[in-house]
């Protein structure tokens, strides 16, 4: 959607945590703060693209409110979510990146009236991510992860054991629970065997974007394995690793758009 004056509508980048938004805002020095719905929306430019960057806060309702305001008030033309997630599938390790191909709410269950996970009256449980944006995010993630030390420094690579991080693409599931027991992650793996990662916002934003006909994509750095040993130093990992990946991947995506 372009404005009547020919300026392109902005792209939205949504983060769940302050550290991630901070890394992005550092790349957006012209960011101007607009208050709405108790949130700060930062409107500026990154690699020449008009961008609205915002903290969604944690959980599905907070994320859905944020996405709705982005659609209604800021008229964004696409939403990208960046954040951290717990790895579910075997081989999805701390420090890997997951690009969502589709998203589902693992805690939505109106059965027996509707099939488990299905969003009542929408007739679907899974929401596809936009293929072109997901391709671009995966490309950017591959490029960054080839040399994690270049982005994070050798010390962080050693501290978090990020020697051969990988990029995965597939199902990401969301729910209003921080999954932090082996029993719960095993139950999720059993119920949804193709789920790669679990987090608390993505599928809610995907549903709002579906309602508005907006392209949506999500990229998550794995911060923990959603088990009893959920990452020892979650906050430090987010600050030292995930926020840099998120900002780096988002910036590389915007740079690729500017070249077109
Ligand atoms: N202990 C952290 C909790 C943050 S909530 C703190 O005090 O700051 C977790 C955030 O990271 C959410 O935004 C969620 O989307 C994501 N996340 C990371 N690992 C997760 C997991 N194992 N289960 C659910 N969400 C997870």
**What is the C-alpha radius of gyration, as a whole number of Å?**
17 Å
CATH topology: Rossmann fold
- Please write the string of helix (H) and strand (E) elements: EHEEEHEEEHHHEHEHEH
The chain-level mean pLDDT equals 93
SSE map:
Layout: E1 11-15, H1 18-25, E2 32-36, E3 39-46, E4 49-55, H2 60-72, E5 78-87, E6 97-105, E7 127-128, H3 131-146, H4 148-152, H5 154-159, E8 167-174, H6 182-191, E9 195-199, H7 202-212, E10 216-224, H8 234-259
Parallel strand pairs: 1-4, 1-5, 5-10, 6-8, 8-9
Antiparallel strand pairs: 2-3, 3-4, 5-9, 6-7, 6-10
This protein binds S-adenosyl-L-homocysteine.
Residues 16, 58, 83-86, 178-180, 198-201, 223-224, 226, 230, 234-235 line the site of S-adenosyl-L-homocysteine.
Folded structure, characterized:
This protein is α/β, with parallel strands linked by helices and 260 residues long. The chain has a single domain, classed as Rossmann fold (3-Layer(aba) Sandwich), CATH 3.40.50. The protein has helices at 18-25, 60-72, 131-146, 148-152, 154-159, 182-191, 202-212, 234-259, and strands spanning 11-15, 32-36, 39-46, 49-55, 78-87, 97-105, 127-128, 167-174, 195-199, 216-224. It has a 5-stranded mixed beta barrel, surrounded by 4 helices. A hairpin with a 2-residue loop joins strand 2 (32-36) and strand 3. The longest helix has 26 residues, at 234-259. It binds S-adenosyl-L-homocysteine. S-adenosyl-L-homocysteine (SAH) binds next to strand 5, strand 9, strand 10 and helix 8.
